[in-house]
Amino acid sequence: MNFKSLPQLLDYFKEESTCIEYYEGIRWGGNPACPHCGSLNPYKTTRGYKCSDNECYKKFTVKVGTIFENSKISFRIWFAAIYLATSHKKGISSVQLALDLGITQKTAWFVLHRIREMLKEKAPKMLGEKNMVEIDEAYIGGKEKNKHTSKSRSDVYPHLKNDGTPYVPKTMVVGLIERGGDVVIKKVPRAVNYEIQPIIDKHVKAGSEIHTDESHVYRNLGITYDHSTVVHSAKQYVVGNVHTNTIENFWSVLKRGLYGVYHQVSDKHFERYLDEYAARFNTRNLTNQERFENFLVQSESVLRYRDLIKFT
Ligand SMILES: [Zn+2]
Fold first, then answer.
1. Which pLDDT tens digit goes with each residue over 264-284?
2. What pLDDT is recorded for position 256?
């Protein structure tokens, strides 16, 4: 198998049985394991497997315990959805995915959220082992109609515009990017040192070279790191190799994607979208097929519809 485009993927995964065989290979590598008890000796049945453990003896298919569980959509459509969602640099909306794949928008929405669940970083990333790390904050969103829901944050954003109306609160994120390497993005409640420093300590190896702007939130970085700054307020953007252009380019892709593709992202799903953008960025040097397989390996996770809508 070798696919470089969506038609090639769809050609290869014509039959559901081909998809199942392929996914069983990815998930179990030829040794099916019971997702209920972990037993490694299931019987093959006509529709899947049956556990041979006397106390378990449950039936299962390769979908149980994965993002595909309880889904009526064929693997072929799922694979196409994963391919589209992970290869478009700015992502794909549920409206567009529904049109492309001939499914309802509600189904497409659910599929995309499960895909985001799969894209979630399973282990914390460590940056700065090889190259310098750029760190910066960004404010995302802030649509007029969100105002009433964000009152509790008004103490963080007390500023008034020239006409006296308050600025619409935005969501703040901090981004850490290793030049030539990976990005880590986290939502933070406010731009203060005690919110941001722990994230940096968790994700950047001590002693690494870090570049930021002059913001006070980074004032203590010099204790653990080799910290250099550019003074943006003085229009200083590049000094030698000190700059934050890499993370700023990432912000522009993220913002164009969130505003252009997804229009508005609700607060409760916001971090899923951040995970999605980080995952795509961190696999940018892989081929479409490598990226596809790389993510499928992480598909063991179930996100039920009720979990998604629980907080509405
Ligand atoms: Zn079992």
1. 777 778 888 899 999 999 999
2. 87
Q: Is residue 273 a part of any domain in this protein?
A: no
Q: Structural domain tally of the chain?
A: 2
Same domain, 114 and 199: no
- How far apart are the CA of 241 and the centre of ligand 1, in A? 57
Residue 64 Cα, ligand 1 centroid: separation in angstroms?
12
Question: Where do we find the tokens 């109609």?
Answer: 145
Distance from Cα 44 to the centre of ligand 1, integer Å: 13
Same domain, 86 and 148: no
Query: What pLDDT is attached to residue 53?
Result: 92
Ligand 1 mean position to 28 CA, how many Å?
A: 15
User: Domain range holding 156?
Assistant: 133-265
CB-CB contact of 172 with 153 (8 Å): no
Considering the domain architecture, whether residues 249 and 305 belong to the same structural domain is answered as no
Reported as a pLDDT band with limits 50, 70 and 90, residue 88 is confident
13 within a domain of the structure (yes/no): yes
Give residue 231 CA to ligand 1 midpoint distance, Å. 60
* pTM assigned to the model: 0.82
Once rounded to an integer, what is the mean pLDDT over residues 137-152?
57
User: Which has the closest alpha carbon to 255: 188, 171, 177?
Assistant: 171
Do you know the residue count of the chain? 312
Instruction: Indicate the DSSP class of residue 310.
Output: T
Task: Tell me if 196 is assigned to some domain.
Answer: yes
* 36 Cα: distance to centroid of ligand 1 (angstroms): 5
